[in-house]
Every structure is written in C-alpha cells, then in structure tokens.
Amino acid sequence: MEYKNDNKFYFEIEKRIPGHLGRAGIIHTPHGDIKTPAFMCVGTHGEVRFVSMEELKSIHAQAMLSNGYHLRNISPEIAANGGLSAWSKWDGPTLTDSGGFQVMSLGSGCGKVVSMKREDNMKNTEEEKRLAHVTEDGVHFHDPFTGQEDFIGPEESMQIQCRIGADIHMAYDELTSLADTYEYNVESLARTERWAKRSLDEHKKHCDDLGYHQSLYGVIQGGRWEDLRRSTCKKYAQMDFDGYGLGGAFLKETLGDILTWCNEELPENKPRHLLGLSHPDDILIGTENGADTFDCVAPTREARHGRLYTMHGPINLSKYRDSDEIIDEGCDCPTCQSKITLGELRRLWKSQDRTESAKYFELASIHNLRFIIRLTEQARQAILDGTFKEFKESFLNSYYGNK
Ligand SMILES: [Zn+2]
Which ranges carry the tRNA-guanine(15) transglycosylase-like domain (predicted)? Predict the structure, then answer.
C-alpha cells in the first residue's frame, strides 16, 4: 500500500491574516491533504448518518472525525481491515477523538458537561448515581447500554485509537465545564498534563502498527483563565505533539480571547483543531484567531431538527408548509441544485414513512454540511486573497444581520 506525502504528517502555512494569528495552510497526512481552514464531518461510528461517502466527496468534505469511545469494541476489526480510512471506505484523512469527553459526559447524563468529582469526593447518593468517575489512572464508567463496568485511561485510549488508525489522534484529557472553579481547573490541568505525557509514551509504541504513521495532538484545557491557558500551552509547546486540540466549554464572548492566549504560546508550525464548534461565527472567530480545523455534530443534528442554514441566517422548516422556495438560492449543494422546495422538504420531514423521512435527513444533512464546508472554503480563499476581514464582516452581517 502506497501512502501519500511519503507517509509523513506535516503542516504548511500558505498565508497569514495580517494582524491576527489566523492562517491558511495545508495539513499533509498519509491519507491525503487537508486544506485549511477546514471543517471535518463527524462520523462518530465511522460514517456520517444518512450521508454516503460519495455524497461527502460531492460536497467537498476533506476529512472525517470519528470517536474512539464509540468504536472501541470493534477497533480490532478496523485494524484487521487496514485502519479507519480503508475500513469505512472514506478513503481520505481521518481524525479520532480520545473518548474522554464521552466517558466523562456519562458522569452527568449523556451529552451534558458538568463538573466531575473525583472518587474520593463521591459521598452523597446523587454522586453515586453517576455512571463515570475520574481517578489518577483514568475514567471508570458503566457502559450506558450494557451496564458493564469499563475503564479508559490514557494508555487504553491510545491503544484503541492506534487500532482504529486515524491519521490524527487526540491525547486523553479531562474536560472541565463552565461551572468548575479555578481551583478545580488547576487540579484537573495537572492531571491532564500527566495524562498527556502518558498518552505520548503509549502512542509512540503503537503509532506505526498499521503500516502508516499516525499523529497525536495534545489537548489544551484551562477553562476561561488566561494564566492557566497560557501556562498549559507553554508546557505543551515543549512536548512532542504533532498538533493541538483546543478544548473546553467556550462562551461566544470569550472564544476569541481564549484562542489568542493559546495560539500565542503554541508553536506556529503545528496545526490546531478547535473541538466541537461549528456555528458560522465560531468558525470565523476561530479562523481569525489561529484555529485550522473544526468539527461539530451541529450541522447534521440541526438538519434533523428542521433547522437549515441560509446566507440570511438559519430557518425553521416547520414554518414553510407548501412553500415553493428552495433552501438557499446561492447554495451549490446537490439538494439545492435539485431545486427541491421547502414545502416538499417539510413534507418528507414530517412523513410517517421511514424511507421519506430518511430521504429528508439525507437531503438536509447534505445541505447544512455543504454550507459549513463552503464557509471554510470561502474563508480560506479570502485569507489567500488578503480579504479575510471584509469577508468576515460581510458574511456575519448577512447571516446574523436580520436578528
Ligand atoms: Zn444547499
């Protein structure tokens, strides 16, 4: 098997945004290049729900992000089939998340991120109901489907990710929430730093097992505190990571500041992935302040809930009964190009027929994904043309202006 880029991972900066940390570049991986800024489509289980790999290629998706937690039990099968790109038939660059976010979310009900308490603090019944708890070793949790006890620490996460075999892996980290105190963040960051070193050590043992090189990003936490973010980034800059994941629960008002603190300290020649954000303003603020890649379930999840993106802001499909308009006149996605009307989309969405509702999920997911991918393409072109500031202003005016 021949791998691209001489089986190497490296980042090339093409052009910077004057006066800011943002840049356009190319991430070279063994399974191909990612031109940045770029949005990675989320295929948690190795596929994007309702969207085929051919459709992903047709909307110019460049990379897919899957999850170590969800794929952990079938990771040996993925390894036996040549790794994630070959096994999933995606045949392009891939990234996996460490699974830390998922197991810790179990501690407070799926998907909701609140403060995690350590084992020795678990006293009242409320705490005992948690499905997960954090110790120095890692995270103990109960599988929400089988009820079985399970454990993932940095070593397990690296072993799982190296069997899955994405081009880019995330180090195992503890995420903190907006509700966590400064003191808790200090304690958590120290543990995450120890986990980062353990991740690096374990990753080195397995990163070439599938015959191509798999890279590792360190994940930066530190909440909303400048001193914590900067000191963490200074330490991680000295560690042998191939790139960085920018993590945490962000408020829109402070996103730009936090990214600036981090990216002023991190080495410029390594790529940075902003974890879990994809609204247009997040992407443009992220890009301006030095984030290179993005991922989020929002475009497909919102599509399934009837929220469709347009140049003039998102629309709620439930209000478009019998409408003969299309979603977005300026959109080049296959859904809009087919001229299917909002009225027909709404009918498919509300249909009791499973084939019809699945068709809606497919058409709507394709549109929302393409909308965000096109935004990153336009942002990239604007950086290359030296017009990013004007592009950002005009896009945000159009998208959020009428609110
Ligand atoms: Zn469209």
Answer: 22-400
